[in-house]
Amino acid sequence: MNKKSIVLQTTLELITKQGIQATSLSQIIKDSGVANGTVYHHFKNKEEIITELYLMLTQDFGTVVMRNIPEDDLKKQFTIMWHNLFDYFVNNPLAFVFSEQIARSPEIPQSLKDKARQYYNEIEAYFRKGIKDKVFKSYNTTVMEELFFGNVVSLVKIHENENVKLLDKHINQAIDISWKGFLRD
Amino acid sequence: MNKKSIVLQTTLELITKQGIQATSLSQIIKDSGVANGTVYHHFKNKEEIITELYLMLTQDFGTVVMRNIPEDDLKKQFTIMWHNLFDYFVNNPLAFVFSEQIARSPEIPQSLKDKARQYYNEIEAYFRKGIKDKVFKSYNTTVMEELFFGNVVSLVKIHENENVKLLDKHINQAIDISWKGFLRD
Amino acid sequence: MNKKSIVLQTTLELITKQGIQATSLSQIIKDSGVANGTVYHHFKNKEEIITELYLMLTQDFGTVVMRNIPEDDLKKQFTIMWHNLFDYFVNNPLAFVFSEQIARSPEIPQSLKDKARQYYNEIEAYFRKGIKDKVFKSYNTTVMEELFFGNVVSLVKIHENENVKLLDKHINQAIDISWKGFLRD
Amino acid sequence: MNKKSIVLQTTLELITKQGIQATSLSQIIKDSGVANGTVYHHFKNKEEIITELYLMLTQDFGTVVMRNIPEDDLKKQFTIMWHNLFDYFVNNPLAFVFSEQIARSPEIPQSLKDKARQYYNEIEAYFRKGIKDKVFKSYNTTVMEELFFGNVVSLVKIHENENVKLLDKHINQAIDISWKGFLRD
DNA sequence: TATGAATGAGCATTCATTCAT
DNA sequence: AATGAATGAATGCTCATTCAT
């Protein structure tokens, strides 16, 4: 494992623990056991470490959401999309931190934000089809996407922060709530 | 307007613009046109400014959500709660920033986080009643609260960030989706 | 003597010894026995220390050159101007360093360069009069000024660097050479 | 063109633009498109690059000043020496930068300074002869050399910095002034 | 000959905080 | 209540240089 990877890995751990802003370069340097200049040999500046990390973590994002989606059964598709996203965030806490911070943080460059928004396309297509198939009510798709995404985020937050142990049944309840909301009356 | 208020007001504006972490005390001092020591005369340290600001902004929070709630009509109550929360966040961007950051930020003391969770009590009571009245399905109330809250947040985010102009009809759609999700089949 | 003055004095000494570029802030801090932050309390940045120092040293520059200039005797005026400038540079090594660096250094802001060029006005007036009085040949005055100034600089350099002890007689020789060059044939 | 030459050429350009001190090795490396270690393969350290560059540029210096000097006509010799030096500096800006910085800069080793002073020998010999021939007044030759040299430098500075367009006539005026200064009364 | 990973001292600057007035 | 001088740890970053390949 080369120094560059060590730096990335250390940064990943620190950011997951403390957030982006609270993670200083000196801490990264200290924790990774790498020399000051070594970091700057591999990265132009602090931002580049974070950007690179972000790209590493999110390059599979788009594919992840749509992984193992079966054909033609809209409800099944919904459930699996939901699980895919939930599992992804649970297993990639940094990706979650990033996706939460993207909305506001000025330190994430716009290009990254744009890139992050690509995965919406497939989700949007999904909702469009649901509306066309008369399964979903014809809500605004941006609203639908945002609510869908937000619901997953809500559950991840419970998973992360609550003392309440989050059980499969709770997740299924959430998926149920989420799904029902979009249906035609 | 006394110096203390000026400091608080300046901090409010800066945090709303830049986030908590990005707002330094020196910037607060510079922007508020107040002397270094004056800030420390009124506040023990930086954290106290933020805490005080947070308390100022959130002390009305609990009452706000339950303002003008009519009796006995669960759907009407839901709609008004939803609007109350949405309007509150839209009109108090800092309260929104805080509520978003509370979940993760290590610099918000636990006591504040606990305090922030009080408003859940009334929302929880609401959902409990809905379940008892056989209007809502008997989902876990934590899940319900979190999804309800998250749905509002999602719309606020659209309101804030999207180029899409958020219309009343979109809000009504969101409320509709949100409400339907909780219903018994 | 307050800390600000100490910093300025220390910087003056260091720059005189080592030049501007070779003088680091940490050295200024170490030598002046002042805390890191104290420097930045008084000065916006390193450049401001140098600028302030420069303004302090050069504000008397214009008056210095024309000090004690007798009326009507062009030769006597020349001699005294020459001595004034020479003595000034010898007694204000930093002013000399600055005036030498002004021509090239990109780190001296243009405003300062402009200010420095003001003293030329009086010297130019002097040469103009000499030409009008038919004492000097009608050379281009910019050339005359630059050569006059350069001659003083040449002698200051000898004074500074040569192992040769610079005697009054050498200075008088230089003035003689300098003067004769401008005369009508 | 081998890597060593590329490094030298790049350094030459950077120093001419920015001065010696402002030119960092990393910049040289970046601009020359050469690897880090390659520089250190060819040069012991940064100083050696500058030294080598300096030697390259000044090895012809001595011969340049005395190029095409006719025999026996002291005035003609003076004029050509003057032009030689002026043209050399105008065409070799770096040589000019060096010659200007040599006097003060502590980073030019003494050995180089000594070497640079060799060309004075021939100029000194010239002035000695002028004095012996009773054309020049018997001024101190160091003073004469320094003034002669300084006069050329003054004109080069006008050439470089002034908005005033420097014409041949101005140069001839300068030579005239310079020459007359040294003459016997 | 050429490379580029690695180093750590050093740099200018910002930060939250203390304290005497 | 208000000021602002003073502090020094910490930050992000640049530097010249070494060394194994």
From TrEMBL, chains A, B, C, D:
Residues 24-43 bind DNA. It holds the Pfam family TetR_HI_0893_C. PROSITE patterns: HTH_TETR_1, HTH_TETR_2. Keywords: DNA-binding. Residues 1-61 form the HTH tetR-type domain. InterPro entries: DNA-bd_HTH_TetR-type_CS, Homeodomain-like_sf, HTH-type_TetR-like_transc_reg, HTH_TetR, Tet_transcr_reg_TetR-rel_C_sf, TetR-like_HI_0893_C. The keyword DNA-binding applies. It comes from the Bacteria. This is TetR/AcrR family transcriptional regulator. It comes from Aquimarina addita. The lineage of its organism: Bacteria, Pseudomonadati, Bacteroidota, Flavobacteriia, Flavobacteriales.
